[in-house]
Amino acid sequence: MIAEAGLAALWIAAALAALQLALAALSVARGDPEMMGAVRSVAVVQGAVVALGLGLLILVFVRTDLSVLLVAENSHSAKPLIYKIAGAWGNHEGSMLLWVTILGLAGGAVALLERRLAEPTLVATLGSQAAIALGFYAFLLFSSNPFARLSPAPQDGQGLNPLLQDPGLAFHPPTLYIGYVGVSVAFSFAVGAMIMRDVGPAFARAMRPWVLGAWIFLTLGITAGSYWAYYELGWGGWWFWDPVENASLMPWLAATALLHSVTVLATRDGLRAWTIMLAVVAFSMSMIGTFLVRSGILTSVHAFAVDPERGSFILALLAIYIGGALVLFGARVATIREGSGFDFLSREGGLVANNLLLSVILGIVLIGTLYPIVAAGAFGGQISIGPPFFNKAAGPVALALAAIMAAGPLIRWRRDQGMAVLRRMAPAIGITALALLALLILAPGIALLPLLGLVIAAGLAVASVAPLVGRNLRRTPLFTWGMVIAHLGIAVSLAGMASETAFTQQTLVAARVGEPQRVGPYRVTLERVAPAIGPNWSALEARLKVERGGRSFTLAPQSRFFANPVTTTSESAIATVLDGQLYTVLGAADGDRWQLRLWWKPFVTLIWAGGALVAIGGALSLLGRVRRDYARRREALA
Questions:
Q1: pTM across the whole model
Q2: Along the chain (638 residues), what's the average pLDDT of each consecutive run of 10 residues?
Q3: Which among 504, 498, 511 has a CA at the least distance from the CA of 587?
Q4: How many CB atoms lie within 10 A of CB 60?
Q5: How many H-runs (helices) and E-runs (strands) does the chain carry?
Q6: Helix, strand and coil in the chain, % to nearest 5
Q7: 477: Cβ–Cβ under 8 A, 6 or more apart, which residues?
Q8: Fewest C-beta atoms under 10 Å: which of 224, 275, 498, 541?
Q9: Inter-residue contact 66 to 3 (CB < 8 Å)
């Protein structure tokens, strides 16, 4: 009965979403305050009911109820508990239920917490959110029912994809989905503001925390997903420009541009139409990402669906939501006043340049991701667009973006003087020149892009902390600290990316037991290969003696075998030290030799440390904004 209760919860939540949409439309048309209040209540109840549905799905996975088709196809009685729980969304139907659950909870949170918007605009926002939810409820109920029964029930399940049997499954998808849904909330705010012709600073101040929250979670999700793929897949790379990776990167790029634009609108009443357009674009990117991953058009560890009908359903939703928003934007854009002006040399101008470069990178990633799919459908041929294209096309634009990011916070609002900006930038420019000179002397063979990356990272790091110079640090607002730390995080990540590209060394050998190998500053000796047993796998485990500078330690990479489903995976063993990581992988046997893949990656950990700093900076900024808004509301009530 648990599965039937879960399905009933979905139907009830869908009915509540339809009611929420209808009440919102009627209350906006009639201007009825009581009906507007009812919209808030329905949104809260809808979020609670769909959360109940997800909880019941998790329960049938924990119990390994094999009479539920989804459990039989994606779980196994011998699977550890954490993977039974996380496995509830480690599949197509469960992941979509997680998506719509977060959507429902976000709508309920908006209804409960938002008090800054005019009531009609808020109700129109909740109506837009209900329309999005209703489409995904229909998708679940008619195309991807997570509670479908299986009769007769099998003796045991088929198991979860071994590549997903990792703690990352419990963290990576939920954080990404919270980011996606936060972008959908920003989209709903934009639609509500366009419907009520209420595009202004108040609307931007209400939307900004949701954009910032979405951006934080997208940053965390992408950073965690990058490290998960790095250590789990055994390829030694941190980003592969896989279409599914790009599907998460594109909303982040759009959300980053939207975050800067909505800040200008909230604080300086500028970029009104651009902010609305970016909200539509950001949600479009999250919908395109959902389509790519869930349509079966891609073959990937992330791509669960293989039914073309599901892809058509999502494509139809994308056309309805995005097409409708663009039509509304076209109808309302003439009514959106321009807002306050600013000079080209101003912080607003820097943010516009930032947005344009982010949009260029977004366009490059979008074209590189979709073109092979479109070409295969139109011409029948297989075209592969990989890292060389993306690195050469997007790399220089990203470096230009980082250079502008260094200058942006040091430029005054409205207008500024060129010489004054140069004086404020002098320390960063000096460090940049010194870094360039040092690299040319110490690493004369370094390639151009990594060289520029390291040089710009050094200048950006100094420029990032410059806004704190001369301030009373105790009284510096949290959102200023957040901006400083987030920009510093970008510099740290950029330095890690450039270092990994420029200085990585690898050794690929067929090694005998007792035979030493060299990689970077390390001497690695294969001591033995022996069987190992895990909770639901068996393995061949190598014992590697690693020596550097008179110190030694051991690493134990594995080649694992899973019986349910039948899969062999490579489990890397990684040693992390202050100046980088030693990355080791055990391959197949070749007579009395074993294939070993060894990488020395200087400062690669800066990539993920920088991502963490960016997220921490965003969190501090969000906390600072919330605290200030709360203080202002208390003063207004006093």
A1: 0.91
A2: 94 97 92 86 96 96 91 84 86 90 94 88 94 93 91 81 76 88 92 89 90 95 91 85 87 94 87 90 87 62 54 80 86 72 80 92 92 73 80 94 91 84 91 95 92 96 92 88 96 96 94 92 94 87 93 93 82 93 92 92 96 96 86 71
A3: 511
A4: 23
A5: 17, 10
A6: 65, 10, 20
A7: 624, 628
A8: 541
A9: no
Among candidate residues 342, 354, 291, 351, the one with its CA nearest the CA of residue 318: 291
Q: Which amino acid, one-letter code, is at 307?
A: D
Token pair of 108, please? 């309920």
> Closest Cα to residue 322, out of 285, 375, 351, 370?
285
Q: At what angle do helices 347-379 and 243-268 cross, to 10 degrees?
A: 150
Measured distance CA(508)–CA(504) in Å, rounded = 13
Q: Say how many residues make up the chain.
A: 638
Residue 404 neighbours by CB under 8 Å, 6+ apart: 350, 353, 354, 357
- Distances in Å between the Cα of 12 and the Cα atoms of 4, 17, 50, 197, 426 are 12, 9, 8, 33, 62
The encoded tokens of residue 327 equal: 């039509």
CA 314/CA 95 separation, integer angstroms: 14
E strand spans, 107-257? none
Token duo for residue 462: 């100094």
CA distances to 329, 348, 468, 473, 481 from 476, rounded to whole Å, are 39, 22, 8, 5, 7
